[in-house]
Amino acid sequence: MKQILKVQISDNKEYLIDISDSSFEELNRDIYEYTRGQKRLIVMSKKVYKLYSAELNFGDEEIFILPDGEKEKNYNNYLKILKRAYELGLTRKDVIIAVGGGVVGDIAGFAASTYMRGIDFIQIPTTLLSAVDSSVGGKTAIDLDYAKNIVGTFYQPKKVFININFLKTLDKKQFVSGLGEILKYGFIEESCNCETKFFLFEYLTLCCEKLMQREALTLIRVIEYCLSLKIAVVKQDEKESGLRKILNFGHTLGHALETITKYHVYTHGEAVIYGMFFIIEWAYKHEYITYSYYRLSMELFTKYGFKPLKKKYSPEKLVNIMRKDKKSDSENITFIVPSGKKCVKEIKLTPSEIECAL
Prior knowledge:
By secondary structure, the chain is an alpha/beta fold. It has helices spanning 24-34, 46-52, 75-87, 102-114, 128-134, 172-188, 200-206, 208-212, 216-236, 251-260, 268-285, 291-303, 315-323, 351-357, and strands at residues 2-10, 13-20, 40-45, 63-66, 95-100, 120-125, 139-144, 147-154, 159-163, 333-340, 343-349.
């Protein structure tokens, strides 16, 4: 089965997303045809290399293996990728391909966007999280020690190949991490202004068992629905000057939790889940949403096995991290808050308000 989505940012900026359960042999053939005549640098995660290098038809000389973990999305590895591209003789006509999760896609995309002022970039996400979110939309970045994604660009890929066969070997923790971003889309659907109604919140309630079992058709549908919503947002606001900020639902506290634990405790999706728990609770207490919708939200989290964060962190330290986030201004911190069923809006809270809520 194959689904093809089109991302059209402008008349001269568009690309296709292939979502399929086709064989790796067919994937290899598609990649070869798409990159025919180009020199390639393949940035691949270490884990994916161990699992799939024999099935993916890449030459060893064109592969750069990136160690696993958020901490590897750093300046030194970025420079190593640029150096490898130069050694391979890549020109402006050539391509960098990311094969891995969000870390690989972010750093490889940033390298592609800056090498020779921009060369072709292809995303091949291998995790559920990157398939439903980070591989599409054009955000690239590296981290600094004190802030996540603080250095980056908006740079759209030329093509995205999503093959759900990669998800068969995904460990449970990483699969659950992807569920965090999937549930996020269920909460923001009405605010995405998408022409098609997917009723994702309701669908996620009904398809939980099949999704947790990684049933192929369900996976493809959920990925298609989530990306369709993201495409609708990105088409309206490519560079996050307005509407695109809604994609950060759950991320303000989520990023702070990742940073305060030095990326060793929570996956990105888990941190986003805790961020959503926090802001939904806040929204209900401040009468942004009804009790009925609050209960439906909690029931959806429970259905997928999620519970509110029990471990306590210093509110002051969390707020200090949030204040360094690229989405904050000089005084206040931006949150995306539920404002109705499947609707969200942007508000700004003072540090004291957040510390009190935490």
